[in-house]
Amino acid sequence: AKSYEEQEAVFRQSNELMPKLLVESPRIWADDISFLIDELENINQDNSIFAGKMNLEQIGVFGMSMGGIASGQVCITDKRCMAGINMDGGIYGDFLDTKISQPFMFMSSERYRGYDNIFSDHVNNSVYTITIHGADHYNFHDLSILDPSFDRLGEIDGYRMLKIINDYTLAFFNKHLKEIDSGLLNGPSSEYPEVEIKVK
């Protein structure tokens, strides 16, 4: 297993070696998300048929891979984001040197097993690090169900993976946006033996 310093070096070296566009993408995507929130606020005003229909005081953001990194970026740059989830995205860009102040979850495949401490250290709030055993990166993608023969999937069943993602995502946002605690995030669950969870 890699040491804490080696894990951090992996992300910093990757950040330096990746094409500039990929390094900047989370910022661009985060700006897009903030723009969308701006527009939702506009159509939630009195002169819109949607006026008062949306609760924009409890916004949660989540994404997979680069979208997961962008979710963290939004939490850093836009305080309207009240909670976020990074699905198998690691930490790159501003994420490396700036801590998130909102509740945050890292939901990862086995490639990030053992990275709990470095992930947790980038959040100054409740933080959950989840490893899904049997999952590879693309199990977080629709391919897990649409094309089970895809050779970059882990061994976990696609529908099982979907249930895990849905249930843990819902439990997280319900707890931190609606103050509804299912207890699922408190520790290991007999219903989900393939899920390893650490809470800090």
From TrEMBL:
UniProt GO molecular function: 1-alkyl-2-acetylglycerophosphocholine esterase activity
Alphabetized UniProt keyword annotations: Hydrolase, Lipid degradation, Lipid metabolism
Pfam families xrefs: PAF-AH_p_II
InterPro entries: AB_hydrolase_fold
One BP term from GO: lipid catabolic process
Name by which UniProt lists this protein: Dienelactone hydrolase domain-containing protein
Organism listed in the record: marine sediment metagenome
